[in-house]
Design goal:
This protein has a domain of 110 residues: Alpha Horseshoe (Serine Threonine Protein Phosphatase 5, Tetratricopeptide repeat). 74% of the residues lie in helices and 0% in strands. The protein is mainly α. Pfam families: NatA_aux_su, TPR_8. InterPro entries: NatA_aux_su, TPR-like_helical_dom_sf, TPR_rpt.
Length: 753
């Protein structure tokens, strides 16, 4: 039932809206009370909805939802109530419900710009591209003079791959808004030129993705003087010339780019393609030598020449390159030359050269006996350092340790040497020794974050999680729990290493907690893109915006998520095979083989850990509450650009370890990998392990087929394949007739008799 407010109360209602917009929540609640305290207006729908919106901003979500629902019940035809209900749902990230609410609001107020904008944001955020296009079309019809209307409309067609329409809209916008417009002020002029340049680059991107490379190239050349980002201009034009096989034009473009930056490898690759020089030919070396003459300080040209030659010619080019690097004390020389180690002949030449140089420096103090100038004292040190890394790369641990010990004896105060020795031990699998060496390096410079982080990482590889946390605590926020602070900062490497360490220790609940925290961080990253839907259009970063959307679509293919998912799935599989009914059962499982003294020590440690966990939980709850309140207070009523924090539900290891449906949780981690990491054989191995426990023959078959397609020689895949054949040989007769016949046919295709 719709209730019309008289002028006095209507003025109060408008003040409530203004108070919410300016975050004057207490005043807003006071005005709402003045209206709702009157019996005839106690059920006024819009006032109830606005009061609910204010309470939601204050963190009182249950009360807020109840009030908004009461408002809707009193007036289902209120656009404001549906709009507010959508905002409440958006704060809880229920995006499907948000879209429904906004659509209901538009039924009663179809030309409301604010609701249309917010609907379009939710649609692009959830990748409802068709709905996004339709909403942007409505906005365009209502406000055809606004820049955002044109650009949002063009992007909607671009994402739907209707490139022709997207280009036409962008071109029409350029003609109507930019052709004859000349700002008077200098700052406005600079902004105008930048925006116009970005728009031309975006149009070129659309043409290129449509497959019309010629039109894209022509568009770039026609607007060359108006595009201010010259590096991007030349890189793009050079790429187009290569795709169109216009090699002469491409060559001149890439030579120009090399003149801008002679140490960019992509420019050299483009130049070689434009010259149609194949790998393994001497012509490449001649080009690199020519560039060295033009740009004597360009070290990359000298380095790339080493990839093109073999034998004596390689040795002749290598010696001056290595001597120059050692003379300058280039610590990164091994990293620079490591790609050459794919060729055994080059490895032998590098080794012989380094031994030869060390011998000369030890005997004569020079690189060559005939040299007049003596080699710097540090040259011998860096030569030892290089050989230590060289032999470590070849897996010759004893020889590598011999050379790094000689280097340490030569200069015992250089922490790089101890880091190198630590890495040698790490590669050999001796993590305790690696930790000891890294600790020595850390003691030399306790303020170096890199060394401290490396030391903490090695400690976690040695399952010393508490020690690692103590070290990292020196660099976290003062007064905060280090683990909580690292989690708050989304320190992914720490979380993945901690999860792996807990898994190795059999601390399943702790491992799952870290994996779930990583999953939450990835969800938070996805939610963070909400802020950029309006920002990128406003700032005209259209190309970057499209790339951002495409990156977010494949975010779960990131190695950090893959590692966390792999650990979580393996833990859930273990818990399914070995269900733990309570924490005491888990402790019993881990203490069966301990002596009385060891058991007593473990019990003391567990008591301390429990007390520490309780303190951590209290701290986390306090931090989460503050963060939640802070984020909610930042919400705006109708701009649609606020970011809602992720769920702050507490993750308790003791509860996680007694998960009633571990296979369902494992599948939840698996699904993103099946679509985004299908090229990894581990994905399909994990899928088979899950589906075999769920007794799903068809899904097991699919997993085996995909695994064999990725890596048919993998030992684990072959083992699972044999297990699958054996299981199906027994079970195939008990399957329903169509399934039984299909399974036999598929097994025959896989080479089963």
């Amino acid at each position: 039932m719709k209730v019309q407010l008289p002028p006095k109360e209507n003025a109060l209602y408008k003040r409530i809206v203004k108070c919410y917009e300016h975050k004057l929540y207490k005043n807003g609640l006071k005005f709402a009370k003045q209206i709702l305290s009157q019996p005839q207006f106690a059920d006024h729908a819009e006032t109830l909805a606005m009061k609910g919106l204010i309470l939601n901003a204050l963190g009182r979500r249950a009360e807020a939802t109840d009030l908004v629902r009461r408002g809707l019940k009193n007036n289902l035809g209120s656009s404001t109530c549906w709009h507010v209900y959508g905002l409440i749902q958006r704060s809880e990230k229920k995006y499907d419900e948000v879209i429904k609410c906004f659509r209901n609001a538009l039924k009663w107020d179809p030309s409301n710009l604010q609701i249309l904008r917010e609907l379009s944001l939710v649609q692009i955020h959830t990748r409802d591209l068709i709905g996004f296009r339709d909403t942007r079309h409505q906005l365009f019809k209502i406000k055809p003079t606004q820049r955002a209307s044109w650009l949002g409309f063009a992007i909607s067609y671009h994402l739907l791959q209707d490139y022709e329409m997207a280009y036409k809209i962008a071109e029409a916008f350029t003609k109507s808004c930019y052709r004859d417009f000349q700002p008077e002020k200098r700052d406005a002029m600079a902004t105008f030129e930048y925006e116009k340049s970005e728009l031309y680059l975006y149009q070129s991107m659309i043409l290129h993705e449509s497959g019309d490379v010629g039109a894209a190239r022509k568009h770039m050349l026609d607007h060359s003087t108006e595009i201010t980002d010259k590096i991007t201009y030349y890189e793009t034009v050079g790429k187009y010339h290569l795709e169109l096989e216009e090699y002469g034009q491409a060559e001149s473009v890439y030579r120009k780019l090399i003149s801008f930056n002679p140490d960019n490898r992509f420019y050299y690759d483009g130049l070689m393609k434009s010259l149609r020089i194949e790998d393994g030919t001497t012509e490449k070396v001649n080009v690199y030598k020519e560039i060295q003459v033009m740009y004597p300080k360009a070290g990359l040209a000298k380095r790339l020449a080493l990839e093109c030659v073999d034998g004596e010619e390689f040795e002749a080019l290598l010696e001056p390159y290595v001597i120059n690097a050692i003379f300058r004390g280039a610590v990164t020389l091994f990293t620079d030359l490591e790609p050459l180690y794919k060729n055994p002949q080059k490895v032998e030449i590098i080794e012989n050269l380094m031994i030869y140089l060390i011998d000369n420096m030890e005997r004569f103090g020079k690189f060559e006996e005939r040299d007049v100038e003596r080699a710097p004292v540090t040259s011998l040190l860096w030569s030892y350092y290089y050989l230590a890394k060289h032999y470590d790369r070849l897996g010759q641990t004893k020889t590598a340790l011999k050379y790094i010990d000689i280097a340490i004896e030569h200069t015992p105060t250089l922490n790089d040497l101890y880091i190198c020795k630590s890495k040698i031990y790490k590669h050999a699998g001796d993590y305790p020794a690696a930790v000891e060496c890294m600790n020595e390096a850390r003691d030399m410079d306790t303020a170096d974050r890199y060394i401290n982080s490396k030391c903490a990482k090695y400690m976690m590889r040695a399952n010393l999680v508490d020690d690692a946390t103590e070290i990292l605590g020196k660099f976290t926020r003062e007064g905060a729990n280090p683990i909580d602070n690292l989690n708050e900062m989304q320190c992914m490497w720490f979380l993945t290493e901690a999860a792996a360490a807990y898994q190795r220790q059999g601390r399943w609940g702790e491992a799952l907690k870290k994996c779930l925290e990583i999953e939450r961080h990835f969800n938070d990253i996805l939610d963070d893109q909400y802020d950029f839907h309006t920002y990128c259009i406003r700032k005209m970063t259209l190309r970057s915006y499209v790339k951002l959307l495409r990156l977010e679509d494949v975010l779960h293919a990131h190695p950090f998520y893959f590692k966390a998912a792999q650990i979580a799935i393996n833990v859930y599989l273990y818990l399914y095979d070995n269900p733990l009914k309570s924490q005491s059962d888990e402790e019993q499982l881990n203490t069966e083989n301990l002596s009385p003294a060891e058991l007593k020590k473990l019990r003391n440690k567990q008591r301390k850990a429990k007390k520490k966990a309780e303190l951590e939980q209290q701290s986390a709850a306090a931090i989460a509450g503050k963060k939640d309140h802070h984020q909610k207070s930042k919400q705006s009523s109708e701009e649609g650009d606020s970011h809602t924090p992720s769920s702050t539900d507490e993750l308790v290891p003791e509860k996680l370890v007694v998960e009633p449906n571990p296979l369902e949780q494992a599948i939840r981690f698996l699904k993103p990998l099946q679509s985004l990491a299908a090229q990894k054989v581990e994905t399909h191995i994990m899928a088979y392990e899950i589906y075999s426990r769920r007794d799903k023959p068809l899904l097991m078959l699919r997993s085996i087929r995909r695994a064999l397609k990725v890596d048919s020689e993998n030992d684990v895949v072959q083992k699972l394949f044999a297990s699958f054949k054996e299981a199906m040989a027994v079970k195939v007769t008990s399957l329903p007739e169509p399934l039984s016949e299909f399974m036999c046919q598929e097994l025959d295709k896989l080479g089963v008799a």
